[in-house]
């Protein structure tokens, strides 16, 4: 997969050279490259921003350098062009799944008060938000997208099963995790995890996943169609936790 990022701060993306995205780059599963709008300005001051029409605080990213950067990116791959924006569609695991199927993406990280609306209207195909809060720039949001997408590419994770079990992949939160030692600070691991009965462990984990989602994210549970077994397990969990 080829991802081109348009950003005034490409050095921030060094974080993606570590861990799973770093390994995915070395394996050739993903190619990341960067275009800086400053390199596409016609003036000697390399101006990328200007005051907003109508007044008000801050600066706005100019149309021309961004459009030139997008057109340069399209010479390599056609897109789609995604603008990271607090006003975009909420980015979630389903969106990560959809984007991970694409051959290429062009991501725009905004700065200042954002981008001239005409650039969005003319050049942007999709707008994605990483949450209802305001970041100083789109770089961290773009990194969230890239990291979430990379995890879904075949061969990126040591054990591809783990992406299937992650929270949200089945529209449920994941069950709680434990590791050695079996007891610490008088706190024991749930006995069932030590007994080696894989069917019982799967049942327990599904029950915990359902219970956690019910406790913490009832909105997710509303979207999940419960199987007969899941209905029984959730009812058990609720009974045990109301006692
Ligand atoms: N004035 C803008 C508004 O109210 O929507 C916020 C501008 S913000 C300071 C600068 C840039 O950060 C934006 O252009 C966008 O690229 C990025 N950004 C901020 N919050 C974001 C979020 N929640 N998701 C995605 N990108 C975000």
TrEMBL record:
A UniProt-annotated Pfam family: tRNA_m1G_MT
Binding residues annotated for S-adenosyl-L-methionine, in chain numbering: 110, 130-135
Keywords carried by this UniProt record: Cytoplasm, Methyltransferase, S-adenosyl-L-methionine, Transferase, tRNA processing
Enzyme class: transferase
GO cellular component, one term: cytosol
Domain of life, source organism: Bacteria
Record's subcellular location: Cytoplasm
Recorded GO MF terms: tRNA (guanine(37)-N1)-methyltransferase activity
Residue ranges constituting the tRNA methyltransferase TRMD/TRM10-type domain according to the UniProt record: 1-223
EC id: 2.1.1.228
Biological process according to GO: tRNA N1-guanine methylation
Record field: catalytic activity: guanosine(37) in tRNA + S-adenosyl-L-methionine = N(1)-methylguanosine(37) in tRNA + S-adenosyl-L-homocysteine + H(+)
Subunit description: Homodimer.
Membership in a protein family: Belongs to the RNA methyltransferase TrmD family.
Cited function: Specifically methylates guanosine-37 in various tRNAs.
NCBIfam families tied to this protein: PRK00026.1 (NF000648), trmD (TIGR00088)
Protein name: tRNA (guanine-N(1)-)-methyltransferase
Gene name for this UniProt entry: trmD
């Amino acid at each position: 997969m080829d991802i081109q990022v348009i950003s005034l701060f490409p050095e921030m993306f060094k974080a993606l050279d570590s861990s799973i995205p770093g390994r995915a780059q070395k394996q050739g599963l993903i190619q990341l490259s960067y275009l800086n709008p400053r390199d596409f300005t016609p003036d000697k001051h390399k101006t990328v921003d200007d005051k907003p029409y109508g007044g008000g605080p801050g600066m706005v990213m100019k149309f021309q350098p961004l459009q030139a950067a997008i057109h340069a990116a399209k010479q390599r791959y056609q897109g789609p062009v995604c603008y990271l924006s607090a006003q975009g569609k909420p980015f979630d695991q389903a969106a990560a799944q959809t984007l991970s199927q694409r051959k290429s993406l062009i991501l725009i990280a905004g700065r200042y008060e954002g981008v001239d609306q005409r650039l969005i209207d003319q050049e942007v195909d999709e707008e994605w938000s990483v949450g209802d809060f305001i970041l100083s720039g789109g770089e961290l949001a773009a990194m969230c997208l890239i990291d979430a997408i990379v995890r879904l590419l075949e061969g990126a994770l040591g054990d591809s099963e783990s992406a299937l079990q992650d929270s949200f992949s089945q529209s449920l939160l994941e069950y709680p995790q434990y590791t050695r030692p079996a007891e610490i600070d008088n706190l024991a691991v749930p006995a069932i995890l030590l007994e080696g009965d894989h069917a019982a462990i799967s049942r327990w984990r599904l029950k915990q996943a359902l219970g956690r989602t019910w406790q913490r994210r009832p909105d997710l549970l509303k979207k999940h169609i419960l199987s007969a077994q899941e209905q029984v397990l959730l009812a058990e969990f609720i009974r045990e936790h109301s006692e």
